[in-house]
Inverse folding.
């Protein structure tokens, strides 16, 4: 998260990355992200009308869940979303409250997590893109070439995909 915040600052944005608390109860984590958003919006050097959410894996799921509960976001970046033991499926069933345009990013060889019994993050992201579009939401997905080793790790550091994130945020926030 520190590298992402630093890269956001270098691109002219303010970045804030809360760390999930353990044990990972989803409802408490959603509350934590909402509280973090409120704290960031209260900072004097932040324009509270120009806020985006970015998340990777479970953080992507949390970002989607928060954006679907609060309409104030101008952009949403979802990187290799985790299924969250059924939470993603439930979220995709009703995306009517989501207003933020979404950029969906995944590596072609992202096979997901063995611990979640999900083995095709590309298909999961395609389902999310379809659900967003079916709900009349602005969504664009980019599938990157295979990432060496585990494709899910593409987004664990700032890398080749970052230019797409910055371009999307600049279009939506500036």
């Amino acid at each position: 998260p520190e590298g992402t915040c630093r890269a956001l600052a270098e691109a002219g944005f303010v970045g804030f990355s809360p760390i999930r608390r353990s044990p990972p109860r989803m409802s408490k984590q959603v509350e934590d992200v909402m509280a973090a958003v409120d704290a960031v919006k209260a900072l004097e050097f932040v324009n509270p009308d120009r806020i985006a959410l970015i998340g990777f894996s479970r953080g992507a799921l949390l970002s989607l869940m928060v954006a679907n509960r609060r309409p104030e976001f101008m952009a949403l970046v979802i990187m290799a979303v985790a299924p969250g033991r059924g939470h993603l499926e439930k979220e995709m069933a009703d995306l009517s409250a989501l207003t933020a345009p979404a950029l969906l990013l995944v590596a072609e060889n992202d096979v997901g997590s063995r611990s979640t019994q999900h083995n095709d993050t590309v298909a999961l992201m395609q389902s999310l893109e379809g659900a967003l579009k079916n709900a009349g939401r602005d969504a664009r997905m980019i599938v990157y070439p295979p990432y060496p080793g585990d494709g899910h790790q593409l987004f664990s550091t700032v890398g080749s995909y970052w230019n797409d994130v910055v371009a999307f945020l600049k279009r939506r926030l500036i």
About this structure: The mean pLDDT is 93. The helical segments are 2-10, 26-41, 58-67, 87-92, 121-134, 162-173. The longest strand covers residues 73-79. The CA atoms of residues 71 and 99 lie 6 Å apart.
